[in-house]
């Protein structure tokens, strides 16, 4: 039913619009002196009442243009052409107008400039190609407001309480300043610390991938991007911030940064320390300063397909769903360009140390084939610490206007240490114990990584012809020592102790990996509308893995052969790729095939045996994009890829942390193949500030690598892997957003669903699990310079079924309500409060409601004339209702989990933001 509704809306929307708009405007643009048609002239149709852009187009080779499907009303038409004076004319159309402006003669600027001075003001918003441009001064914000507050006033842009930005319904992950990264591309840094009065324009567009930008071939990868264009007197400046937040119970969040930016130069030093999960905004931003940029040539040790992915934006930091953190980070950032921007250098250095202490519990009820239900309980105390240093950098050199050489590198050393204690037990339907396990685990290890990329790329004089060559060396080594002490009790059916098993293991692990890859990509236009891309990649990997397990009970020097391995593996991969694309002003279609041939050899040095495989992976892809208008488009895509089993899944060596759970590989695994289909529709009507989108995706996997388990009467599990068919998923989403600028309101609604079918084998019985989820979300926002109010309700229905039987009906319902408001008070003060209401009603699996109301508030006041000093008092979880709790209802399993969390706390904070410009304001000429 939902599918039918989505498709109906998708196809009825343009039809209804077409029926309501019937007027037309057309004409021919010429140069009367040379009597030539002015092809590619830009024609803009602007609403006379509000100066908002209605439509835009370009003249064809005959100078002809036409606007159709227009509502009645008053308009202005603006025509521009290089070296010609702008043509402006007022028009009035009715429902059935068919205005023919005839031949429009443009005049040279040089002819009329000595006679008259033309003064023009830019529209508040306009389309420039595929880029939406907002004139910053046309949107009123309070004095000393930052860019975040400016973005909140722009049609089609949303900024939530955490600083996350959405433009035209899509999350903005990159914010640039004058086309370059501003100390990295994290949206928060530029939008928080730059002032709104320093901005000339805000540009919103879809940024292509680096490969698509070079080759011109659409690979379907687009990221919503905002570019902040600064005024001339604001391009050179400085910014510094100190953010200190403390409490009486040793909690705190502290950060500081000093930075300068002058033309292309950007330099900063920073430090952060936090004992809170909800880190300060500066903490989140500064961790993401980057120094290296290149696409990795990745081939798994198993011979899997080469993938083209971007490097991690924040690989020195890991997040946890719970626990008590203690995180320290120090760093420095430098970027500049030299010799008329021909040479560039970017460096980023970090030192970090992240510690987390967590206490977790888990209670699980599981139904197995032809067996009574198992009831399991587990409690764990875990302490982890990860620290290290990293240096990343990029050097670029524009050899000539068409050729670029870029050298990127990364060096990092990471140390990790962990200690944990856990206890788990299993009982049967009769309440008698079945098995118990207590264990202690400890370990320490180091990892060193060296990687780099040398890229030379060239654009030729013939448009669309490009050549790109990459050389990529990588090296990695790791060493670790672990200790595992276990005591396992096994019980008889009457609950009396049967036997006790003790294990005391010491594990010494070492490994290394060295690789060299190369990639060549060439594109060449076959005609004006057809372009061909061909590529070849090669990568060789030599790796080793030496895992030694010793029995400390019998003899510390005695190696356990069944748990140890000494492997060496070598992989050679060759990849050929060919892609053909057709494109015109409305349609872009690209289709192609990537073929990977891999030779894989695994040597067991202990047993003197070899395991060899040859793979041929085929990965087809097709992307189609139809541009209905500048603000409306539809895309259809298909991607197929083959995935090889990993080394851990293939190697037949037991892996054991506890006697109750073991993993054994399966050397007979075959590769799986996934097929992914997708269709999407997006429309943003700028004049009415209305956005609608719909998407639908379906995927299925042949020969999927699935888990198989053998569970005995003591709940002892031996896990392995096999190939099976039946894994598939389907999901869809329908979104709508509408702004009402005259009453300062915005409304949005989102409806989604997803269904996944997965296969697993339990005790030689196939278990088909089907999980369905429905989501409904709405949003309401009201804003004025003095008051802002937000309300976001959402509801989720989940169902789970299992072919081996269900526990209860497998249904659960939750609904949440996010309410927040901000009020500007006298004396430059601000009060903000928010409620996060969560309702998890009782169901057939859980008899207890779980409802929480998290109430947070703060009051702040800004001091000094420039409002750069802020004093803040904040209270988190005023009602003290926060709980570290999750629960899950599936087909043959239900579970509930708890974790450590930070309870109610009060913070007193001082924030000092000092930013300014080296250049003084100059009078407009």
Give your account of this protein's structure.
- Residues 414-439 are annotated as: Disordered.
- Residues 458-912 form the Outer membrane protein beta-barrel domain.
- It comes from Pedobacter hiemivivus.
- With 925 residues, the chain is mainly beta.
- Helices cover 6% and strands 64% of the residues.
- It is built from 7 helices and 52 strands.
- The chain starts with a helix and ends in an 8-residue tail after the last strand.
Question: Summed up, what is this model?
Answer:
The chain has 925 residues and is mainly beta. It has a 26-stranded antiparallel β-barrel. Strands 9-10-16-17-14-15 form a 6-stranded mixed β-sheet. It is globular, with a radius of gyration of 31 Å.
Topology:
Blueprint: H1 2-20, E1 23-31, E2 36-37, E3 42-47, E4 53-58, E5 64-70, E6 73-80, E7 87-93, E8 98-105, H2 109-112, E9 125-128, E10 131-135, H3 147-152, E11 157-159, E12 165-167, E13 170-171, E14 174-177, E15 180-181, H4 187-193, E16 199-208, H5 210-215, E17 222-230, E18 236-246, E19 252-262, E20 265-274, H6 281-286, E21 295-298, E22 307-310, E23 324-338, E24 343-366, E25 374-400, E26 403-427, E27 433-459, E28 466-491, E29 497-525, E30 530-551, E31 555-559, E32 565-583, E33 587-604, E34 609-629, E35 632-643, H7 647-650, E36 655-658, E37 661-663, E38 672-685, E39 690-702, E40 704-711, E41 717-724, E42 727-740, E43 745-762, E44 765-783, E45 787-802, E46 811-825, E47 829-840, E48 850-863, E49 869-876, E50 885-889, E51 893-898, E52 905-917
Parallel strand pairs: 1-8, 14-17, 37-41, 40-43
Antiparallel strand pairs: 1-2, 1-5, 3-4, 3-6, 6-7, 9-10, 10-16, 11-12, 12-13, 14-15, 16-17, 18-19, 18-52, 19-20, 20-23, 21-22, 23-24, 24-25, 24-51, 25-26, 26-27, 27-28, 28-29, 29-30, 30-31, 30-32, 32-33, 33-34, 34-35, 35-38, 36-37, 38-39, 39-42, 40-41, 42-43, 43-44, 44-45, 45-46, 46-47, 47-48, ...
């Amino acid at each position: 039913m939902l599918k039918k509704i989505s498709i109906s809306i998708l196809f009825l929307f343009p039809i209804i619009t077409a029926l309501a708009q019937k007027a037309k405007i057309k004409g021919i643009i010429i140069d009367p002196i040379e009597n030539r048609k002015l092809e590619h002239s830009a024609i803009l149709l602007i609403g006379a009442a509000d100066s908002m852009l209605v439509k835009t187009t370009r003249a064809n080779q005959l100078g002809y243009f036409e606007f159709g499907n227009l509502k009645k009303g008053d308009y202005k038409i603006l025509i521009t052409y290089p070296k010609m004076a702008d043509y402006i004319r007022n028009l009035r159309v009715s429902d059935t107008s068919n205005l023919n402006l005839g031949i429009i003669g443009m005049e040279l600027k040089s002819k009329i400039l000595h006679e008259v001075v033309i003064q023009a003001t830019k529209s508040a918003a306009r389309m420039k190609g595929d880029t939406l441009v907002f004139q910053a001064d046309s949107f009123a914000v309070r004095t000393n407001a930052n860019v975040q507050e400016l973005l909140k006033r722009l049609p089609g842009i949303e900024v939530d309480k955490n600083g996350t930005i959405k433009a035209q319904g899509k999350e903005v992950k990159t914010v640039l300043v004058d086309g370059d990264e501003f100390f990295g591309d994290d949206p928060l840094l530029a939008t928080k610390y730059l002032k709104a009065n320093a901005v000339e324009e805000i540009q919103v567009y879809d940024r292509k991938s680096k490969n698509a930008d070079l080759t011109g071939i659409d690979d379907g990868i687009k990221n919503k991007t905002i570019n902040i264009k600064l005024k001339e007197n604001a391009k050179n400046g400085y910014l510094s911030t100190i953010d200190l937040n403390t409490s009486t119970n040793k909690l705190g969040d502290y950060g500081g940064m000093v930075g300068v930016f002058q033309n292309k130069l950007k330099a900063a030093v920073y430090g952060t320390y936090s004992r809170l999960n909800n880190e300060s905004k500066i903490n989140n931003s500064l961790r993401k300063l980057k120094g290296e940029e290149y696409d990795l040539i990745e081939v798994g040790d198993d011979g899997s397909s080469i993938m083209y992915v971007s490097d991690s934006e924040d690989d020195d930091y890991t997040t946890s769903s719970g626990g008590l953190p203690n995180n320290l980070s120090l760093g420095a950032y430098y970027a500049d360009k030299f010799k008329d921007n021909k040479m560039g250098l970017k460096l980023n250095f970090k030192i970090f140390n992240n510690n987390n202490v967590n206490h977790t519990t888990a209670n699980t009820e599981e139904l197995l084939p032809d067996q009574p239900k198992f009831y399991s309980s587990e409690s764990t105390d875990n302490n982890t610490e990860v620290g290290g240093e990293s240096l990343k950098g990029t050097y670029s050199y524009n050899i000539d206007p068409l050729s670029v050489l870029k050298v990127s590198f990364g060096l990092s050393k990471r140390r990790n240490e962990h200690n944990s204690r856990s206890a788990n037990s299993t009982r049967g339907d009769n309440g008698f114990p079945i098995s118990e396990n207590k264990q202690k685990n400890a370990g320490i290890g180091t990892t060193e990584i060296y990687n780099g990329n040398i890229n030379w790329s060239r654009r030729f004089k013939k448009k669309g012809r490009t050549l790109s060559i990459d050389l990529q060396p990588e090296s990695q080594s790791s060493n670790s020592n672990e200790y595992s002490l276990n005591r396992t009790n096994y019980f008889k059916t009457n609950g009396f102790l049967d036997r006790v098993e003790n294990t005391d293991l010491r594990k010494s692990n070492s490994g290394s990996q060295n690789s060299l890859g190369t990639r060549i990509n060439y594109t060449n236009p076959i005609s004006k509308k057809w372009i061909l891309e061909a590529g070849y990649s090669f990568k060789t990997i030599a790796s080793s893995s030496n895992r030694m397990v010793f029995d400390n009970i019998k003899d510390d020097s005695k190696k356990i052969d069944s748990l140890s391995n000494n492997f060496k593996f070598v992989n050679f991969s060759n990849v050929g790729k060919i892609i053909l694309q057709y494109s015109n002003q409305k349609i872009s279609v690209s289709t192609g095939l990537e073929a990977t041939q891999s030779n894989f050899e695994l040597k067991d040095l202990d047993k003197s045996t070899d395991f060899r495989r040859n793979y041929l992976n085929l990965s087809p892809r097709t992307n189609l994009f139809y541009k209905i208008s500048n603000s409306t488009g539809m895309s259809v895509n298909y991607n197929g890829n083959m995935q090889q089993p990993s080394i851990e899944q293939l190697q037949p060596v037991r892996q054991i942390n506890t006697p109750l759970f073991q993993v054994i590989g399966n050397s007979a695994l075959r590769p799986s193949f996934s097929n992914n289909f997708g269709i999407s529709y997006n429309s943003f009507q700028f004049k009415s500030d209305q956005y609608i989108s719909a998407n639908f995706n379906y995927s299925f996997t042949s020969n999927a690598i699935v888990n198989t388990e053998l569970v005995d009467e003591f709940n002892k599990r031996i896990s392995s892997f096999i190939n099976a068919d039946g894994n598939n998923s389907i999901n869809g989403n329908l979104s709508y957003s509408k702004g009402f600028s005259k009453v300062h309101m915005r409304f949005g609604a989102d409806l989604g669903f997803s269904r996944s079918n997965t296969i697993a084998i339990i005790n030689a019985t196939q278990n088909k699990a089907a999980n369905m989820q429905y989501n409904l979300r709405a949003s309401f926002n009201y804003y004025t310079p003095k008051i802002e109010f937000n309300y976001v309700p959402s509801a989720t229905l989940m169902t789970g079924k299992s072919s081996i039987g269900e526990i209860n009906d497998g249904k659960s319902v939750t609904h949440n309500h996010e309410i927040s408001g901000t009020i500007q008070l006298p004396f430059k003060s601000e009060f903000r409060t928010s409620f996060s209401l969560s309702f998890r009603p009782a169901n057939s699996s859980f008899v207890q409601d779980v409802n929480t109301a998290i109430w947070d508030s703060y009051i702040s006041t800004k001091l000094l004339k420039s409002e750069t000093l802020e004093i803040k008092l904040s209270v988190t979880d005023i009602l003290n209702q926060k709980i570290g709790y999750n629960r899950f209802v599936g087909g043959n399993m239900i579970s509930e989990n708890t974790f450590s969390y930070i309870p109610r706390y009060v913070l007193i904070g001082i924030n000092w933001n000092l930013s300014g410009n080296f250049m003084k304001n100059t009078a407009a000429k």
